[in-house]
Amino acid sequence: MTTILSASSVVAARTELLADKVLKLRAKGFIPKLRVILAGANPASLVYIGHKKKMCQRLGCEFELNRLSSSVSKEEFLNEIKKMNEDASITGCFVQLPVPNQLKDIDITELIAPEKDVDGFGAASIVDMFKGRDPMFVPCTPKGILDLLEHYKIGVSGKTVTVIGRSLIVGKPISLLLQNRGATVSMCHSKTPDLSIYTKNSDIVISAAGQTRFLGPQHFRTDQSQVLIDVGMNRDQNGNLCGDMDFEALKNKVKAITPVPGGVGPLTVLSLMENLVTATENKRQEDSQ
Ligand code: GUN
């Protein structure tokens, strides 16, 4: 029997815990507040931001969206980041990626104040992961993947894992976090020849490639022994949301698989909220010293 790795049970339990933490912080006068800068109107970004706003509201956190024009100048953009960093009422913040072309050569993730970097994309987080420890702010999607594996009691120590995708947001950090937990990780990407060699020989396969249903039964063993985690968030030709994996073709052939939607996605938003609460708790400690 294949296990469908669904976010809903993890989200339910952790949301309650988080809401309780937010209540306690608010009672002491510390309100978790998330500010997001969005330059332009990327449709996927607007959807992601909508989910983040809804979750903030559900938990009793404040949410602010700072929308900038798609033609915003570098100067204005940098000034908005500076204001965000300096505003003491904002406890967590980030710039939604991707950004318009004129901003692409700015090293944005290094401009966010480290104590507010709830995305966990800055050097402080990267260095910690590289050195073999969990950072204060674990990047949100990798954190969601780890939580899902833990919830379903899928151990990673001594396991072989293939990660497809080498992004700062998912591929690189999840590879490091899994290595730190004792997994043997192969990092594959769009230029990897004969991907099946890696995917067939892994206990766990994580795909964050962003290619519609490009992984099918030909990439995996047929003995129901593999765990598949699909981070893809794509649209098929009918406009339906789907992952990198052909869920329908794979769901009876593997040990466990995440659906899209309903797998890793909701956990990413939850991780962001957990990081926001951590940032606010840290501020409370700092302020009381
Ligand atoms: N774009 C897609 N995912 C993310 C994310 O987790 N954080 C930011 N800042 N931008 C994104």
- Estimate what percentage of residues fall within beta strands: 15-25%
The largest sheet has its strands arranged as: 1-11-8-7-5-6
Shape: globular
**Count of discrete alpha- or pi-helical segments spanning 4 or more residues:** 9
The Rg value, from CA coordinates, equals 19 Å
Task: Report the sheet with the most strands, covering strand number, pairing sense and barrel closure.
Answer: 6 strands, parallel
Poorly predicted spans = none
Query: What is the strand tally?
Result: 11
Helix and strand element order: EHEHEHEHHEHEHEEEEHEH
Question: Would you tell me the overall average pLDDT?
Answer: 97
Task: Kindly report how far apart the N and C termini lie.
Answer: 54 Å
Q: Which ligands occur here?
A: guanine
**Could you estimate the helical fraction of the residues in percent?**
25-40%
Structural class: alpha/beta
Task: Please name the defining characteristics of this protein.
15% strand; 9 helices; binds guanine; alpha/beta; single chain; 289 residues; 3-stranded parallel beta sheet; 6-stranded parallel beta sheet
Question: Layout of SSEs?
Answer:
Elements: E1 3-4, H1 8-27, E2 33-39, H2 43-59, E3 62-68, H3 74-86, E4 92-95, H4 123-130, H5 140-151, E5 160-164, H6 171-180, E6 184-188, H7 195-200, E7 204-207, E8 227-230, E9 234-235, E10 241-242, H8 247-250, E11 256-257, H9 265-287
Parallel strand pairs: 1-11, 2-3, 2-4, 5-6, 5-7, 7-8, 8-11
Antiparallel strand pairs: 9-10
Helix pairs in contact: 1-9, 2-9, 5-6, 5-9
Structure overview:
This protein is α/β, with parallel strands linked by helices and 289 residues long. The chain has helices at residues 8-27, 43-59, 74-86, 123-130, 140-151, 171-180, 195-200, 247-250, 265-287; strands spanning 3-4, 33-39, 62-68, 92-95, 160-164, 184-188, 204-207, 227-230, 234-235, 241-242, 256-257. Helix 1 (8-27) packs parallel to helix 9, helix 2 (43-59) crosses helix 9 (265-287) and helix 5 (140-151) crosses helix 9. It is globular. Bound molecules: guanine. Guanine is lined by residues 48, 94-97, 119, 140, 169.
